[in-house]
Design brief:
By secondary structure, the chain is an alpha/beta fold. Strands 1, 2, 3, 4, 5, 16, 17 and 18 form an eight-stranded mixed β-sheet that branches. Helix 1 crosses helix 7. The longest helix has 21 residues. The protein is globular, with a radius of gyration of 22 Å. The protein starts with a strand and ends in an 8-residue tail after the last helix.
């Protein structure tokens, strides 16, 4: 094994939160590829946005907040968001000379010597004094398990592999999930499919009227409290409800958004409930969300008995060298920006308070 390369900070992930952290580190005087390094496993700039389906145009994106220091202006609302935001992120990286390393896979983070963390990657090992983890959730789609799932003769796809609505033309489709992706998939698919059925575990909560700063803070506070308790984070969207707009109202009026409770089992030809009701299906679309992609941190034993990682601000309670950004309450685009700034400030304070001996550098 080659000798580990010393840096002050490793940033894992170059989505919104990772780029925000890198920007604020850069502004604080940290030099890319000397004092800090940004590692990203994706093939190109854009974070998880680059993998979004083509029918998600920029005009359909809810609340894409600009990265710090550079606005996103003049974007064509009819262009796929994957292209718009991918180009924006690429320009951002170049403008601020962030020198993102990609594609680089991080396999594990372990305790090293002299108070450093060892970050094991596909391009070698880094020995770092602090870590910003900005790996998001896209790499960990959540697939629920239901009796009979393996017997289904049709197709099962997750939001992470959603091919766009045209792929469901003439088919009978069951969409599972009551979040923003589930409702968007359903409304798109209904225009092409032979029939659609919408099922959710809980009754959907629709939100009327404006969603201002006060409501946003209250929603984030609910997510933040779970993280403080060491519980797995919920998405911010899960506590804000689903916004009502003209398209949603039309879909509700037409019956497309008529919701059924969650089925009890899956059959070879569809889904079934214990009360005897059945629905035939050619495809089941699982719009069931994602989980935090943090398995590479497992050697550090940061998880609490409740299954999550306790975080105060962005700093993990069990290890002050590690900051989680884009996790829990900072999973929104504006939250990711703020988390990147907070993590950079926390790391500056940590490194000032624990100066390394000259001989160790």
């Amino acid at each position: 094994m080659h000798e580990a390369r010393d840096v002050d900070v490793v940033v894992i992930g170059a989505g919104q939160a990772g780029l925000s952290a890198a920007y604020h580190l850069r502004r604080s005087g940290f030099e890319p590829d000397r004092d800090f390094v940004v590692l990203d496993h994706a093939p190109r700039p854009g974070g998880a946005w680059q993998f979004r389906w083509a029918s998600l145009t920029y005009g359909k994106v809810h609340g894409m907040h600009a990265l710090p220091g550079k606005e996103l202006t003049g974007a064509d609302p009819a262009r796929p968001s994957s292209e718009v935001i991918g180009d924006y992120f690429a320009d951002y990286e170049e403008t601020f000379d962030l020198r993102v390393h990609r594609p680089v896979d991080v396999t594990a983070v372990r305790e090293g010597e002299g108070g450093r963390l060892l970050v094991e990657t596909s391009e070698g090992t880094y020995a770092t004094r602090a870590l910003v983890n900005a790996t998001g959730t896209w790499d960990r789609p959540f697939w629920p398990r239901y009796p009979g799932q393996e017997t289904f003769r049709g197709r099962q796809v997750h939001t992470a592999q959603y091919p766009g609505p045209e792929a469901f033309a003439g088919q009978r489709v069951v969409v599972v999930g009551g979040g923003a992706s589930g409702t968007q998939h359903l409304m798109e698919i209904a225009e092409h499919a032979a029939a659609t059925t919408w099922v959710t575990r809980r009754e959907p909560v629709w939100r009327e009227g404006p969603f201002g700063e006060v409501q946003g803070r209250a929603a984030v506070a609910l997510v933040e409290e779970r993280v403080r308790q060491g519980l797995p984070p919920q998405s911010v969207v899960s506590v804000t409800g689903l916004p009502l707009n003209d398209a949603v109202r039309a879909a509700r009026a037409s019956g497309v958004l008529e919701r059924l409770p969650m089925f009890d089992r899956i059959t070879p030809t569809g889904v079934a409930w214990d009360d005897g009701r059945t629905v035939d299906a050619d495809v089941i679309v699982w719009a069931t969300g994602f989980r935090a992609a943090i398995d590479h941190l497992a050697p550090l034993r940061l998880r609490e008995p409740g299954g999550g990682i306790r975080v105060e601000g962005t700093r993990t309670v069990r290890d002050p060298r590690i900051h989680l950004v884009g996790y829990g309450p900072s999973a929104s685009t504006i939250g990711a920006n703020r988390a990147g700034r907070a993590a950079a400030a926390g790391i500056r304070a940590l490194l000032r308070s624990s100066p390394e001996p000259v001989a160790a550098r």
